[in-house]
Amino acid sequence: MRIYAIANQKGGVGKTVTTVNLAAALAERGRRVLAIDWDPQGHLTEAIGVEVTPGASLARALLGQWSGELSELVQQVNDNLFVIPTSDDMFLLEPQMYGKAGREYLLSRFLDTVVSIFDDVVIDCPPSLGALNDNALVATRKRPADDQVQGKIVIPVQAEDSSIKALRLFLRQMTTLQEALNVEFEVAGMTVNMYDGRKGRIATSTLEAFQTHPIGVIGVFKDLKEVRESWRLRTTVLEHAPASETAIGFRKLADRLDPELVTAAAS
Ligand SMILES: Nc1ncnc2c1ncn2[C@@H]1O[C@H](COP(=O)(O)OP(=O)(O)O)[C@@H](O)[C@H]1O
Ligand SMILES: [Mg+2]
User: pTM here?
Assistant: First the structure.
């Protein structure tokens, strides 16, 4: 099982859009994909239009306060795409994590229980650098090469100065966490969202700065109407506008993250 954390503490950079559409692209390639709404604000739940089963709660499951069936937590979107929506008590998870030993591993331990069910997990991270974000990063930590679970971090950014500052802060938090827990993370790269070269020098020079950064850019998405339309229609861009530049971009991103997909599609 491959775990992708779509993370950046900066809000509005495209984490949720990336999660939804990357998950849809992986599912389209035949992978069984679980997308997790790991942001208490529930934008992913909203964007994909899934209902929350009353009483079912990932937050309480992680705290050992709920032990229902996995099928109550997971909602099916299409043949291969599944979502764990957020729940009202997701807001309570982070404060309740503090003080718990091994709190950074709660999500990771839960994901260990679904290894035989899903091929990929895509986590939509919250716009903050707290325990929730730490949990998502830790779930992607490097394991031995033969481990069943492998993970990567994808960082959506926008071509703006404030995004560069935010990136620095994010990377610092990553380093702190790696040192504190003695784990290692692999960052697959940045995706630049809502890119508009017509905005001039600020946009183009920021894109350049990202491209020459050691982390590198693995996808550039323009400001595209299909994204907003599909959000409003509560579906994915791949479903709403399958031939669009955006849909193609997300398929390329999926292939780039998982080169095995390219081989499978060609055969
Ligand atoms: N490539 C894009 N083109 C047009 N609108 C976009 C694009 N990416 C994101 N958006 C819009 O920008 C807003 C913020 O994106 P979102 O994915 O919610 O960011 P985050 O999860 O990082 O807060 C949303 O309303 C979304 O529909
Ligand atoms: Mg979001």
Answer: 0.96
